[in-house]
Amino acid sequence: MKTVISKDGTKIGFDRIGEGMPLILVDGALCSRTNGPNGALAALLKPHFTVYTYDRRGRGESGDRAPYATEREVEDIEALIEEAGGSAYVYGISSGAALALDAAMRLPSIRKLALYEAPFVTDDSREPVTGDYERAMEALIREDRRGAAIKLFMRKGVGLPAPIVAMMPLMPAWAKLKAVAHTLPYDTRLTIEGQQGRKEPLDRWSTVRTPTLVAVGGKSPAWMRHGMEALAEALPNAQHRTLPGQTHIVKPAALAPVLADFFR
Length: 264
Hints:
This protein has helices at about 40-45, 70-85, 95-105, 130-140, 145-160, 160-165, 175-180, 185-190, 220-235, 250-264; strands at about 1-5, 10-20, 20-25, 50-55, 90-95, 110-115, 210-215, 240-245. About 40% of the residues lie in helices and about 20% in strands. By secondary structure, the chain is α/β, with parallel strands linked by helices. Strands 1-2-4-3-5-6-7-8 form an 8-stranded mixed beta sheet, sandwiched between helices.
């Protein structure tokens, strides 16, 4: 593991593998450099790119500072880009896709951008995520009720059925999820504006002219597919791609060739 220091002095831990143009992979909620899909994805992309995986602030080997602001996470990506030589490609998944969008809006050093299933709710195909959810999430974290926060996120944020959520504490990964659950309000802040059941909030990214790939799984729920269609329409330089047979838990072997073709 290596580290960079972000603008506010926070240490950010990262790994780097491969050769070629730098490519930074941005995790979604509850994932870290050693626990999530981006490690396996990096291994498949390393023949084509110098791939950076990192711990978002508050997770793994990275530090954190209060109060949280999305701008600080953008500065973390900026520090990684500087470490990589001053320009890079960026890929983000789920709430990490929303963070990558905010980074591209602020950082001209991002040469190309790829996004997989930012969790935007843009129509009535599922219930919107309300401000009550955000307040409830923040309250649970203040009370250090991490397990309850994960269940709230999975039920109201992700939209999983209640029986599946009830069984999650029995999963082997539950302890790892709880270890980073205190960062769930960060991901909520990144995404909730785009989860109101309307397309208009996505216009905030209409100034992002970076060449962008917006990808979605063919077996993902309708609300997710519709949200990614709306995002591709809102971005002035985007292409939309559906990965047949994939869901939000996208298989790295299905995603890696698509990313390699787009970034090359």
